[in-house]
């Protein structure tokens, strides 16, 4: 999974960058009937994607790894998650570049979505840690073909004056998909092979519906940029003082967040004292909707209030500090009530952070004409920490003998992320 900034596609509107030719009718009029229909398709397509990511990686994969080698489940799961995240990070830009060169998105959405079914089938058949790693890497590869293409739909097909709504539809896919994924994962915890196929079918169905109902106009094919020029272009954004600190803050908070969330099932198994009769996978199905609702509420309120008071740094820093407070709760208490409080408070913190921090970043982009490219650089701060988070978490848990130290380290990272926005000069 490569977490994307919900508001990334609205960067061009914020900074004044121009859309690609043929991406929207002249004049930037409000969306017509086809575009109004595109928003629910974007919500559906992204929800299905996040449902697979959360349900597979957060529930079924963790159970499968535990069944094979219970004693080494933490280290094995960290290895699988880390290696597969590398595949995700590589395939996402490669697939995006290939779809750019073809001038089409729908074939890549359809191909990646349909390929999810055999990938999930193979994952269900895997019976060793090596085979699980290979199968999940294949799953990450095809899912990132799908993700790269569907992420590019907003700048391709939505006029500037409607990108805020489109970005909201994309962003809501995370809490909706997370809830759906947790519920499906819990329902098939005793039969994860069938559960894998359900997730594959869900993505494939969403891909078929999206490409059948979402009309596409072929765009001019884009010439590939030499690797040296691409590297120079990406690193130039990080030489800007304010953008660099925004990048660092995002990377620190995301690292702490995913170090904990990736091990949620094992935390519920080995750290939390659950109510009598409640299984850990059922607990995930309770916590994830709670977090998702909190995220939706704080995303809306955080965005509105930061606009109302024109204080981005205040809300970004406060939400990062609130995330640190949330992480302290399960560190000092192993009760189920503590985990419920953690899920709600962390959802409030992360939802507000992602909404307002994305707005902040759009205000510190070095050049308006490079807005889309520089938002892509920001997504390295999303994807990169997700690669190393499983390794970091497995080392901390293995050496400390428990999850208390993991919560403490994640809280420190959240505080560091809050402090990172202080040096930013151009935004209040």
TrEMBL record:
Compartment(s) of residence: Cell membrane
Topological relation to the membrane, as annotated: Multi-pass membrane protein
Pfam annotation, one family: MFS_1
InterPro entries (alphabetical): MFS, MFS_dom, MFS_trans_sf, Tet-R_TetA/multi-R_MdtG-like
Compositional bias ranges of the Low complexity kind: 1-19
Segments passing through the bilayer: 41-63, 75-95, 166-188, 194-213, 247-267, 282-302, 314-336, 342-365, 377-397, 403-421
Annotated ranges, domain Major facilitator superfamily (MFS) profile: 39-428
Residue span of region Disordered: 1-30
UniProt-listed PROSITE patterns: MFS (PS50850)
Keywords linked to the UniProt accession: Membrane, Transmembrane, Transmembrane helix
Protein name per its UniProtKB record: MFS transporter
Species per Swiss-Prot/TrEMBL record: Streptomyces spororaveus
């Amino acid at each position: 999974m490569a977490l994307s900034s919900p508001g990334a596609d609205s960067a061009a509107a914020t900074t004044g960058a121009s859309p690609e030719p043929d991406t929207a009718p002249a004049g930037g009029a409000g969306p017509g009937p086809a575009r109004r229909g595109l928003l629910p398709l974007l919500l559906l397509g992204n929800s299905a994607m996040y449902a697979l990511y959360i349900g597979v990686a957060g529930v079924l994969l963790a159970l499968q790894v535990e069944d094979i080698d219970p004693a080494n489940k933490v280290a094995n799961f960290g290895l699988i998650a880390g290696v597969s995240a590398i595949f995700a990070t590589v395939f996402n830009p490669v697939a995006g570049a290939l779809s750019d060169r073809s001038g089409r998105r729908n074939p890549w959405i359809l191909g990646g979505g349909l390929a999810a079914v055999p990938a999930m089938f193979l994952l269900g058949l895997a019976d060793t840690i090596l085979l699980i790693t290979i199968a999940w890497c294949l799953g990450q590869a095809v899912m990132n073909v799908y993700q790269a293409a569907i992420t590019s739909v907003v700048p391709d097909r939505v006029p500037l004056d409607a990108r805020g709504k489109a970005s909201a539809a994309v962003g809501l896919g995370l809490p909706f998909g997370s809830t759906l994924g947790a519920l499906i994962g819990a329902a098939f915890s005793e039969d994860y092979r069938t559960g894998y196929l359900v997730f594959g079918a869900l993505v494939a169905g969403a891909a078929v519906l999206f490409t059948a109902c979402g009309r596409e106009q072929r765009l001019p094919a884009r010439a590939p940029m030499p690797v040296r020029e691409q590297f120079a272009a990406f690193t130039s954004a990080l030489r800007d003082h304010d953008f660099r600190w925004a990048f660092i803050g995002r990377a620190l908070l995301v690292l702490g967040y995913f170090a904990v969330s990736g091990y949620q099932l094992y935390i519920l198994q080995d750290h939390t004292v659950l109510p009598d009769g409640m299984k850990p996978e059922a607990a995930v199905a309770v916590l994830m909707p709670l977090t998702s609702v909190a995220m939706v509420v704080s995303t809306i309120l955080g965005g509105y209030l930061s606009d109302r008071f024109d204080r981005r740094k205040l809300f970004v820093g406060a939400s990062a500090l609130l995330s640190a407070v949330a992480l302290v709760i399960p560190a000092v208490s192993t009760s189920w009530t503590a985990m419920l409080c953690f899920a709600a408070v962390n959802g409030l913190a992360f939802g507000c952070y992602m909404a307002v921090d994305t707005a902040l970043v759009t205000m510190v982009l070095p050049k308006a004409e490079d807005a889309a490219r520089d938002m892509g650089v920001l997504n390295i701060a999303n994807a990169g920490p997700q690669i190393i988070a499983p390794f970091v978490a497995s080392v901390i848990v293995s050496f400390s003998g428990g999850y208390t130290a993991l919560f403490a380290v994640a809280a420190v990272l959240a505080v560091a992320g809050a402090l990172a926005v202080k040096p930013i000069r151009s935004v209040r």
